[in-house]
Amino acid sequence: MQENTTRPLGTGLTVVAGLARIAQGLNFAPVGALSLFAGARLRGWRAYALPLALMAITDPLVGGYSFATPFVYAAFLINVWIGSRFLRNTESPIKIGSAAAAGSLQFFLISNFGVWLKFPQSYAHTLSGLASCYVSAIPFYGRTLAADLLYSAALFGLHAWLSRRVARAELVAQTA
Asked: Per-domain residue ranges for the chain?
């Protein structure tokens, strides 16, 4: 039996979350969650391509291009990997919440490392300068974490509910 690789429900929810980015508030965007969700619910190249395409399309609309863009995109690709590696066969709120928290943390570390690299006039290229950069970014981390947890709950919850009522072909195959 051939596995359904198109996954219209997963694709649709990913696109809706990506478009919701346009209406985002500062550091309260769905991109981390949609990357995690894409990794968990989409298959193959689509899991990586769709979040990147949505970022590239919406970046000009929200002023998202910056010096740290390569680091931001890399962090979102890591979220896709986290979803594909740890959430593919689960609907566990604990596992999803843990993965969302891990994704938020790695995004914080990677994106702010990019800031530190690009702004030697603000942060010395020393261990102390890196620590200062991370400390300065802590106020933004809370909103990122909250957004990732909220949007992950919404995406995974909607998928679980809709896959039981509308798109049964996308039910998550539970493993022990």
From this structure: 8-170
Question: What pTM was estimated for this model as a whole?
Answer: 0.83
Record the tokens describing residue 143, joined without a space.
Answer: 């909103």
Burial class (CB in 10 A: 0-12, 13-18, 19+), 128: exposed
The C-alpha atoms of residue 165 and residue 167 are separated, in whole angstroms, by 6
Q: So what's the architecture of 8-170 in CATH?
A: Orthogonal Bundle (1.10)
pLDDT tens digits along 50-98: 888 888 888 887 776 665 688 999 999 999 999 999 999 999 999 999 9
Is the separation of the CB atoms in 91 and 156 below 8 Å? yes
Task: Please report the DSSP string for 47-109 in residue order.
Answer: HHHHHHHHHHHHHHHHT---TTHHHHHHHHHHHHHHHHHHSTT---HHHHHHHHHHHHHHHHH
